Amino acid sequence: MLILTKPQHFWMSLAVLGLSLSACPREIPPPVNPCEEVVCSNHGTCILQGGDTATCACDEGYVADSINGLSCLVVEGGGGGGGRDAGGTDAGSQGPDGGASQPDAGAGGDDVDGGQGGGSGGGGSADAGPIDAPVQPCDLPYCGGDDRAEQDGIVCVEEHYSFHPSLNAQGGHTRMIRSSTVGGEPVVTDQLSELMWTGCALGLSGERCANGSRIRVNYEGHETACEELQWGGFDDWVRPAGHLQNALLDRSDRNPVIPNSLFPNLANPNGAYLPMGLTTASNSQRINLSTGETSWISKATLMDAALCVRSTNDRGADGTHRRCFQTNYESTAEPTSEDLGTGLIWQSCLAGTAGTSCQNGSPEAMTHRQAVAYCDDLVWGNHDDWTLPSLDQILSLRSVRSGGGNNRASRLPEGAFAEVYANLWTSSTVPREGYNNFIQFAQEQDLTLSTSETQSRNVLCVRPGIWSYRLQYPERVCREMSPIYTAQDRRGDALQVVRIPSDSPGEHIIEDSYLGLQWTGCPEGLSGNECQNGAFVNAPGGNDFRQYCERLSYGTQDDWRAPTLVEIRTLFDYESQTQDTIPDAVDAAFPALSERGIMDDGQQFFSGTASYRIGENGVVTNLNNGARYCVRDHGDNPLPRRINQCVETTAWTQTEGTVSMPTRGLQYAACAHGTNGRGCTNGTASQVNWQTANQNCQDLQWAGHADWRLPTATEALHVYDASRFPHSYFPMDHRAFPIRGAAPADWTSTIVEEDRNRRANGQSSYRSGLQNTARFLCVRDLD
User: Could you tell me the pTM of the whole model?
Assistant: First the structure.
């Protein structure tokens, strides 16, 4: 059957308004008001979230954009209230506001790409309101069940999985309240669903869940442990059923996908998986807390982390509810179904099929870009405003499938949709992988998986409504990040460090006016002007290091802390043409640095139990012991460790994409050399020796320019975000650079000792022979 499409529309991409912190090399940037120059598209007011993060509180009828919340976009699907169109379902179902607040930073200083916000319901308007506005309890039928009677055009499903949206789809982290009325037994209450969760994994306790030992349980053991649990003053806990735990997830972030601020110590060190409530005869489902992907395991498998849940209202914590759908399935050639619980209106047939029961044609699998275009252009059931559904929208459709085998626990509601088991595209991106990977719902196996956009999957379209996320490829992206500062950014012959004696004999202090710090003048165990006295202590890093500095009294001061990796990296010069990357001025201020190296506070390390060390050669390595220097904040104008950086990108809209950094005066090829296409999906990244890489950049004709070159070592490091290194393995902003896997900015133009190159990656810069092979990016100076 021929499916009609509406005329092709060309939408002008909205440039996302943001801030960039302008910093001249070797100068300390002045403080910046994050809301300065943010006009919220003239349809809202810029406010500060958490004291220093700008976001837009939008006017009625507008919602903050889902990239960084710095623009106000008109709400789609705001019309409604009309009667039934011929062959369709009611278009005016009321839906709650679905705008998502920006989640907090999570563990280890990581920030996020920006949540995939929800839209408003079909007949309502979305008012984003204050970002921290309290979430009201859900009063729609999807939350508590639907008791209406079946009649012509209305089918009801007795066992439909209970569903509550993820945090990134509605409400953000402020939707959850973590509290404790019984000491050491915190609970987390969802204001939307009114479900209460144990605030620690089974076996752990304390405000930060640092006490006790995890109880490893299998499926039956989990059920028993919850039923016997006395926690937080309550004894009516149960094992979470169905997929209630979807409400705990923030799918705009990863590592972990359940926020550490709400459930501390859940994912580390061993709790990489959390049991979900979906089950078959012999298997149960679990979620990977690092990626958000789900998988099946035997019910006998012991899990490293488990939570319990209880209801605070009279609806209970059941895993299923009765749900009803208004449908013309089996009565029209282009059937649609309205979920009366959520107000969402769905295409009842997969793309490629049609007919009263979708019997004509065959399901058509397509790439993600094709899927987006298919829904955008679709005219079906007299409607032309279809869109690709978000993951939360797809998950809200799941009904219990009875009589099925293993790995097939759900189906689309019977009587409203064709019975199909296909892998369905969603509009939800995979966090920290840009727009090359998207989340698919594998209906065949009832799993949530990450998939490359070039793969072919099936498509089911929905009209805009609650939890909508309309994909828009950005041309400007802004994010709070930690730049990699180096000694090249310091100024003056002394590089803004000076060694002075303190009031305590033998204890020297290093004044660092660039960072706004004081450093202890010698590593632990040594003292004297040249650190010549005492015995060096090869001491532990990580938690032990942080506690050591917090207890330290040195130079008559007692407010010391362990330095961060961002701070210690500023002592090294990656443009050095010798193995020694410590400038003379730094060497004079830190007389033991070249021999002993220096450790960071361990916060960048995955578990926080060890530290990273930089030695004389400037290379970052991980280790358990090393030289411990401490720092204290000092001075009136410290260097910002995190900035709001905006870059311009054509990586998703042009076959020869570029990324421009105005604050650096540089433009990078968005793709690793050897690849091109929108999203850099064509070709294979070049792995060549230095001479070939250098010549390839000089010969490159890209995006209308011919003045490309290899970046210097410092310029190559500019593409990385220190807050994402290294435990996330995604050290750059993938919304700007669509590059996955190993570091792309490897070869540089910085030659060391004539026969070696100072290569750059997400960690640091290191020497390598010119005949080795590596990937590389090309760069040019902005016009």
Answer: 0.73
